[in-house]
Amino acid sequence: MTKKQLLIGAILLLAACLLPFVLSNYRTFQAALVLVYAIALLGLNILTGYNGQISLGHGAFYAIGAYVAAILMDQAGAPYWATVPAAGAACLLVGFLFGLPALRLEGLYLALATFALGVSMPQLLKYHHLEKWTGGVQGIVIAKPEAPAFFPKIGLPLNPDQWLYFFTLAVALAMFLLAHNLLRGRVGRALVAIRDQHTAAEVMGINTALYKSLAFGVSAMYMGIAGALGAIAVQFVAPDSFNVFLSITFLVGIVVGGLASLSGALYGALFIQFVPNIADEISRAAPWAIFGIFLIAFVYVMPTGVAGAVRMILARRKST
Amino acid sequence: MTAEALLPQVIAGLATGGIYASLALALVMIYQATHLVNFAQGEMAMFATYIAWALINAGLGYWPAFFLTVGIAFVLGVIIERIIIRPVENAPVLAVVVVFIGLLVILNSVAGWIFTYTIKSFPSPFPIEPLFGIRFMSPHQLGAIGVTLGVLALLYAFFRFTPLGLAMRAAAQNPESSRLVGIRVGWMLALGWGLAAAIGAVAGMMVAPIVYLDPNMMGGVLLYAFAAALLGGIDSPGGAVLGGLVVGVLENVLGAFVIGNELKLVVALVLIIGVLLVRPSGFFGRVHVSRV
What's this model's pTM, rounded to 2 decimal places? Predict the structure, then answer.
């Protein structure tokens, strides 16, 4: 990173920290959700954008993360912060295992298999033998975490929404740094090489099977962490909120934000959080009509997404 | 589990299987023409069924509405190929899949927008009284299987005996050579889409009396159709029909005796992944060998 980039990063971080003090509680909550989606999109981007494995069912891992967090809090009385790494670990494992058979599937067929996973997930969550833990169709209600007692003592009383925002911001930062370091070096180059020239990558000595299933695991881990944070934020999990349209929402996010780009995750998250809110006022069907039109339009006109457009504008300004 | 308990489940499975088979047939059509799996096939069928519903409500009889809908669906299929699919014909798989998903959500939301999300009933053309003294299967289910087999026979005849069918097969198998002998390959692909949309419309009109008409009615059916098409071999029309029937029976028998009705979609998931892993070419599909 250059000095200039560091400076911009620091300014953005400062702005992000000041945000909850100028916004209303509801807007702060929405901002926290944007961060949650950004983590999720980061995960999907590692798999689809960088490694070229198409997943139309990543909402399933988001759901698993959300349920792991909710069940741990509801049944075991675990503190909310401990459920986040637990959800991440659970999804890392499940994602890695799903990634093993997925190794044999290429392109279209992987899309098909993951699509099936996304469609059938709500049924699995409703399964009556699991109802003891999952609460069946009703789902699970979670209490909102309070800010630690430490903050009022230093003269900074945070309400629950503000605290949740900062908690999510901290996790999101950590996840962005992790992704940045992971993709910058050897692993990132291997993933991209597998995406662009599978056979050549293998000939170069890259263990494609290992990297592909690891990419699946890591991206599922991101989804799981996002799912846990999302569940804590909305204080509720239910099977029907994790249908295949959630997976498609994430796809919209990475396509609009920008494939194979870290900053794209943030643009995409802003898009999927706020555009449906605005479009909802037109008609119940409008958000999805807009999502669909944007999906197709971006493939035609702006395949690198918003992040790519921003990069292009910056490059142009530099050259003039 | 006795034979008496098993038989009705098998027959009911065949009945639903007939519907999966017709949608699977539509998937195979597009795969044969373009080597793509159309994720929007279910929503295209749903949309066509809404058109049929609107026509019937406007006072048309069932069969005129049926054939008019099939015609409209054909034209819409051709238009979709020409306008939306053609620009990404040679694009990477990801771009194509994203366009399909975009199409899926657009059709879904536009149907919801125009026709609202309230569930509607859709008429069946078949009588209510049992046909031929068959008790286990309603006349509609029997009729739906008949219609599916009829469509299959028509398709077979079309591809086997007509010059246009031959041209379409040639265009799919070897586009370059076909172009050299004067076949308009682009239009053959569009025709393939039109046919698939028309078959999908038939499937939609056959399934709607059973699952009722709403914008999300095809979600589960599409998944079974995927499983059926894969099981039969994604490039084999006959295999798709057989696959549809097998999937229908498996779904019903497993649902009734083994895993319960709650996990029926999971059966499709396991089938899809299982077939792709164990025998990606299905029963009758061609084994693909790619050259490095």
Answer: 0.90
